[in-house]
From TrEMBL:
GO terms for molecular function: 2 iron, 2 sulfur cluster binding; metal ion binding; monooxygenase activity; oxidoreductase activity, acting on paired donors, with incorporation or reduction of molecular oxygen. It holds the Pfam family Rieske. The keyword Iron applies. Belongs to the bacterial ring-hydroxylating dioxygenase ferredoxin component family. Its cofactor is [2Fe-2S] cluster. Signal peptide: none annotated. Transmembrane segments: none annotated. InterPro entries: Rieske_2Fe-2S (IPR017941), Rieske_2Fe-2S_sf (IPR036922). It comes from Modestobacter roseus. Keywords: 2Fe-2S, Iron, Iron-sulfur, Metal-binding. The keyword Iron applies. This is Nitrite reductase/ring-hydroxylating ferredoxin subunit. Residues 2-75 form the Rieske domain.
Length: 117
């Protein structure tokens, strides 16, 4: 049984959980990425979509390209600290570019959005 989300729960700009996946509707495209942030494992299904269509982590706002799983902007903070950490941010972004999120296609099927493969 594939992982799925009711399409009515996934309007443009929404992120929802489906099994191990965060299913994202950027407004232009549906996709699914693995749920654990490459920084400190926050649940990306609790994240948001920004104006550029990137998935934003709910903890320290690392940004991901949901078509590649690549971290395109590193975290702004760590643990409970939220603020500038330039060298650390660059280092984590490098890691997030190498160790990308897993990516799957998500398609509308009937009343659901289904994660393929
Ligand atoms: S856990 Fe995602 S940016 Fe820190």
């Amino acid at each position: 049984m594939p992982d799925r989300v009711p399409a009515t729960d996934l309007p443009p700009g929404a992120v929802r959980p489906a099994g191990p996946w965060a299913v994202v509707n950027t407004g232009d495209r549906l996709s699914a990425v693995s749920r654990r942030c490459r920084h400190q494992l926050a649940d990306l299904a609790e994240g948001s979509v920004d104006a550029d269509g990137c998935l934003v982590c709910p903890w320290h706002q690392a940004r991901y390209d949901t078509s590649t799983g690549e971290m395109v902007t590193g975290p702004r903070g760590f643990l409970g600290w939220h603020g500038p950490t330039p060298g650390y941010t660059t280092l984590v972004r490098w890691f997030g570019q190498v160790a990308r999120l897993r990516v799957r296609r998500a398609v509308r099927r009937g009343d659901d959005v289904v994660v393929e493969g």
